[in-house]
Design a protein that fits this description.
This protein is mostly helical and 203 residues long. The protein is 62% helix and 0% strand. Keywords: Nucleus, Transcription, Transcription regulation.
């Protein structure tokens, strides 16, 4: 059963963005947040991201470096393809394309020679300043969404909504890719159709 406030859905389970925009206008809801959700659930966005991800994976195969772990290369390629698919409409996608968020997650800055820990007095002073729970959660969310550490709450929520929807689409596409690859790997090379050689899916 589909309720009246649920998104417009096509027969294949993909959202119909045109019908969804009409529904949002009639309800007068948060257009930006809800349209970002529906945009990432369209078959068009799935196809765009799939194509960009396949191209990125092919480039990794051609330029595989022994210095950089392949798993890290795939992770970076998957996120960059997601950011390119976003089209630069969001701060998180621009941050990923600039490489800031990925580098920040992969490195840990430490002072030379190990450094000294803050004095007990300074640590006690910091502990005495209690940050409100809501502010703590907002800061935590800002660290999770690339490029959004210093955004005000309304803008942060819009970015987080779009980022989560994009990640959900990424999971769906990569799960589908893994399923296709597992089935393709079990087929003998001699019995594979010629069209597979031109497929963007790596063997």
């Amino acid at each position: 059963m589909i309720f009246s406030d649920s998104p417009a859905i096509e027969q294949n389970g993909i959202l119909d963005p045109a019908k969804d925009r009409i529904r949002i206008r009639k309800r007068g809801g948060s257009t930006a947040a809800q349209l970002s959700l529906s945009r990432w659930r369209t078959s068009k966005q799935n196809r765009i991201y799939s194509a960009k991800l396949f191209d990125a994976l092919r480039r990794i195969r051609r330029t595989d470096s022994p210095v950089k772990p392949r798993s890290q290369s795939i992770k970076v390629a998957a996120y960059r393809a997601l950011a390119v698919t976003a089209g630069g409409r969001t701060r998180w996608s621009n941050a990923i394309l600039a490489g800031r968020s990925i580098r920040r997650k992969n490195r840990r800055i430490r002072p030379a020679g190990g450094g000294e820990r803050p004095t007990k007095l300074f640590s006690a002073a910091r502990r005495s300043v209690k940050i409100p729970a809501v502010e703590r959660k907002v800061k935590f969310l800002g660290r999770l969404v690339p490029g959004c550490r210093k955004l005000p709450l309304p803008s942060l929520l819009e970015e987080a909504t779009d980022y989560i929807a994009a990640l959900e689409m990424q999971v769906r596409v990569m799960a589908s890719l893994a399923e296709k690859l597992s089935g393709f790997a079990g087929v003998p090379v001699a019995s594979r159709p010629e069209s597979d050689s031109a497929s963007p899916i790596p063997s």
